[in-house]
């Protein structure tokens, strides 16, 4: 039941009409309120819809799992253009309770169990038998113990002619069971840990001894339990699996080291024991080296030191640190990361968060929570090196742990009373509405169709991340308040932007999206184009990245390097397609000396094969070497291959030419043109340097996929951007890289094609702007249209570009 709204679903009068007031209370509707609702004045009808949401949420809050899908349907039938009659509401409430009587009883039983377990844990803490930080582990153990009592065994009694749940009998039954189980734990503790309190890992060890794999409680004597050090070894061995040789000297040396480190730091010891599996085993479930284990444990100790140091000034922070290290299974943050996060969070203005109330508007709630969200994002950017931050963000547990870390600092700066007030905010109807809006924006593009792909994808991802981050904040608040009774409302309804006063929330998300895209774009430009690259060149790339003319998102979110790739891959892919099929067709027809790959290979083109071997510059030898790569047979000869396999070899050979490198030098400048018609920039190389230097790397995966990498380096004498000529120091350069992947199934399809059907004449006319395409722009787009569907190579590709430019002077020469 949501305590911040004075709603009782048990005392509504049949002959009265109701609405939900702005302060969250159910009130009887008088004549003026009824008139406002009838005439749709102010928020009268919204207050009726709010009443439906609150009653529905309170009903669902009484059960863990609700039967009867008709609840939404029943409420939907109510006429919310007028105040709701108590008789109509009582009918729905009674119907729900009847359909869910068993589930309501089970939910009440769970509350009884929770209260008894909480009292038992408090008693153990007061007796000094249990470490305070191990309270949750003890709760988990006691909860597992009462799982032996089947839900269908709930006692019943007759009350006013109805069979109802006998709470008193069940309470007595659980109390007796828990007392007996706790006595067993006491006995184990006194016998095996006379000098130590029960801690997290030992409780986990007890759990492993007392329950079988199916969760059944075993009859185990106290003698079968071991003392603290022996138990540590047994516990570790139970976690590292059956594939590790437990008699191996190296294994035991590593385990001995781990146990020795648990004696140095009590707080870190718990983490080491609970996370021993991830500390000792790598991703392949193989034992790590001793050096690797030492590094991981040293990192845990380093994090623990930071938590302890900050904890001297921030009460409760040590407890948070142990929780975070436990959540990440001992995977520590980079050195200094925690302290930098703390320094960012400790000076954050908490006024907007502290001033929130259960009756605050959706806009006020969003503004405070979005400010906290943005502060967290800013802290992340400046709390480590780019590589360290990327490692945190790419690991799901570490990313969530970073949010827990920042939010915990903020919450610990608040007083207990302020945290209680925040609890009422999260239980309010308006908070439920903004959370619902965030989720609806993510799930249904209909609300953002007018935005275009670029902004649409990012705003939905931002909304989803806001909802997720708020849920983590609620978890944090529950943890720091030692409670799990924050009952957020289950608001299910359409987003009524104007009527629910969500317009400012929506606008804020759009503004946040624009800001995010601009920041990401600027960061990408600054990271990849260093030195004195002219603003005209930078703006050219920025405009393309933000363009709506292509799909520039990845998993809905704007990612600049993905956007750049998506912006140019059509033009690069088309020129690659043309270059590969043209040469492969000529090779198949025996016109070897007419091919670009033949001319370039004999001139000494640099191609690296698997193992670092260089492709021969003798064409016949090179062709045999490619045949060996394609067939995975080191003795294969081109002359001995069947027709289909020879064509596969020809296709790979055709990739090794300056023409495929030109897919970058031609494709990227055209792609960056606003209209995709003509090159947006030109590079004039220093005298005598000619075309760009190109390096090729070719491999074949175990599954038969072909992977080609082409890297080009252009030294710059002049950079011509939108007809402006910028003189450059000859040390200036632009690097371009293409990673080109053809799947095994596509490679097999290409091998079966009749390449003589490829009309390269029409395609080349489009590229050369001759024949039918004489004088026409958009040459690459036109060439792509001329490539027959079956002749289009379906490849995955990634295109990258970076550079560094120095100016001999700041003059821009006009042509």
Task: Give the topology.
Layout: E1 17-20, E2 26-28, H1 31-39, H2 44-60, H3 70-76, E3 84-85, H4 86-99, H5 101-126, H6 135-145, E4 156-159, E5 162-165, H7 167-192, H8 200-210, H9 228-239, H10 249-261, H11 266-274, H12 276-280, H13 290-311, H14 317-327, H15 337-345, H16 351-354, H17 362-381, H18 386-394, H19 396-412, H20 416-426, H21 429-443, H22 453-480, H23 503-528, E6 529-531, H24 535-545, E7 553-554, E8 557-558, H25 560-588, H26 596-602, E9 606-608, H27 619-631, H28 643-654, H29 658-671, E10 681-684, E11 693-700, E12 706-715, E13 718-721, E14 724-727, E15 733-742, H30 744-752, H31 760-768, H32 779-786, E16 796-805, E17 812-813
Parallel strand pairs: 6-16, 9-11
Antiparallel strand pairs: 1-2, 1-3, 4-5, 7-8, 10-13, 11-12, 12-15, 13-14, 14-17, 15-16
């Amino acid at each position: 039941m949501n305590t911040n709204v004075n709603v009782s679903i048990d005392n509504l009068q049949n002959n009265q009409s109701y609405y939900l007031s702005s302060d969250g209370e159910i009130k009887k509707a008088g004549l003026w309120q009824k008139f406002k609702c009838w005439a749709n004045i102010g928020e009268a009808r919204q207050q009726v819809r709010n009443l439906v949401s609150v009653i529905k949420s309170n009903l669902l809050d009484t059960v863990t799992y609700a039967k009867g899908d008709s609840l939404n349907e029943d409420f939907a039938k109510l006429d919310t253009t007028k105040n709701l009659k108590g008789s109509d509401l009582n009918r729905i409430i009674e119907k729900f309770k009847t359909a869910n009587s068993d589930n309501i009883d089970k939910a009440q039983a769970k509350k009884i169990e929770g209260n008894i377990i909480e009292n038992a844990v408090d008693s153990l803490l007061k007796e000094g038998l249990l470490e305070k930080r191990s309270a949750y582990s003890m709760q988990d153990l006691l909860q597992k113990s009462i799982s032996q009592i089947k839900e269908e065994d709930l006692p019943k009694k007759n009350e006013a002619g109805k069979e109802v749940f006998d709470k008193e009998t069940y309470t007595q039954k659980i109390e007796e069971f828990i007392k007996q189980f706790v006595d067993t734990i006491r006995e184990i503790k006194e016998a095996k840990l006379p000098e130590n309190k029960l801690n997290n890992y030992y409780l986990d060890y007890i759990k492993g001894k007392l329950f079988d794999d199916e969760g059944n409680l075993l009859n185990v004597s106290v003698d079968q339990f071991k003392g603290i050090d022996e138990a540590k070894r047994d516990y570790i061995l139970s976690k590292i699996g059956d594939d590790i040789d437990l008699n191996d000297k190296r294994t035991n040396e590593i385990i001995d080291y781990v146990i020795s480190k648990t004696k140095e730091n009590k707080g870190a010891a718990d983490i080491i024991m609970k996370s021993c599996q991830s500390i000792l085993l790598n991703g392949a479930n193989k034992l790590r080296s001793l050096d690797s284990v030492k590094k991981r444990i040293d990192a845990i100790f380093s994090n623990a030191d930071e938590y302890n140091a900050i904890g001297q000034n921030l009460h409760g922070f040590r407890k948070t640190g142990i929780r975070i290290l436990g959540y990440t299974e001992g995977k520590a943050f980079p050195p200094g990361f925690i302290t930098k996060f703390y320094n960012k969070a400790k000076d954050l203005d908490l006024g907007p968060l502290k001033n929130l109330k259960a009756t605050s508007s959706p806009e006020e709630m969003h503004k405070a929570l979005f400010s906290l969200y943005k502060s967290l994002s800013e802290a992340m950017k400046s709390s480590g090196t780019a590589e360290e931050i990327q490692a945190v963000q790419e690991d799901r547990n570490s990313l969530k742990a970073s949010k827990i870390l920042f939010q915990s600092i903020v919450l610990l700066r608040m007083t207990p009373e302020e945290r209680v007030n925040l609890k009422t905010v999260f239980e309010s109807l308006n908070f439920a509405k903004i959370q619902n809006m965030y989720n609806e924006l993510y799930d249904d593009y209909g609300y953002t169709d007018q935005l275009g792909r670029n902004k649409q994808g990012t705003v939905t991802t931002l909304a989803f991340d806001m909802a997720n981050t708020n849920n983590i904040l609620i978890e944090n608040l529950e943890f720091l308040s030692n409670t799990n009774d924050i009952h957020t409302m289950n608001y299910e309804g359409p987003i009524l932007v104007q009527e629910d006063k969500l317009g400012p929330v929506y606008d804020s998300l759009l503004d946040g999206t624009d800001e995010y895209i601009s920041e990401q774009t600027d960061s990408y430009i600054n990271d990849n184009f260093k030195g004195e690259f002219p603003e005209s060149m930078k703006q050219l790339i920025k405009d393309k990245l933000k363009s709506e003319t292509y799909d520039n998102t990845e998993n809905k979110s704007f990612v600049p390097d993905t956007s750049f790739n998506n912006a140019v891959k059509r033009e690069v892919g088309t020129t690659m397609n043309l270059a590969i099929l043209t040469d492969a067709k000529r090779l198949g027809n025996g016109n070897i000396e007419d091919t670009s790959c033949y001319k370039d290979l004999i001139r000494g083109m640099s191609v690296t094969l698997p193992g670092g071997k260089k492709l021969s510059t003798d064409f016949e030898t090179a062709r045999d070497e490619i045949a060996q790569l394609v067939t995975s047979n080191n003795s294969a000869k081109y002359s001995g291959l069947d027709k289909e396999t020879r064509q596969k070899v020809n296709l790979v050979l055709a990739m090794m030419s300056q023409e495929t490198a030109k897919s970058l030098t031609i494709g990227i400048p055209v792609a960056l043109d606003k209209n995709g018609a003509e090159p947006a920039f030109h590079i004039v190389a220093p005298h005598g340097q000619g075309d760009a230097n190109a390096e090729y790397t070719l491999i074949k995966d175990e599954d038969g996929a072909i992977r080609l990498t082409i890297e080009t380096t252009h030294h710059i004498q002049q950079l011509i951007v939108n007809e402006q000529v910028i003189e450059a120091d000859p040390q200036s350069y632009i690097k371009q890289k293409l990673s080109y992947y053809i799947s095994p199934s596509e490679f097999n399809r290409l091998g079966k094609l009749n390449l003589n059907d490829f009309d390269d004449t029409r395609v080349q006319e489009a590229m050369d702007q001759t024949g039918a395409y004489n004088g026409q722009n958009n040459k690459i787009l036109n060439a792509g249209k001329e490539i027959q569907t079956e002749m289009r190579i379906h490849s995955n590709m990634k295109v990258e570009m970076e550079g560094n430019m120095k100016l001999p002077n700041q003059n821009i020469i006009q042509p």
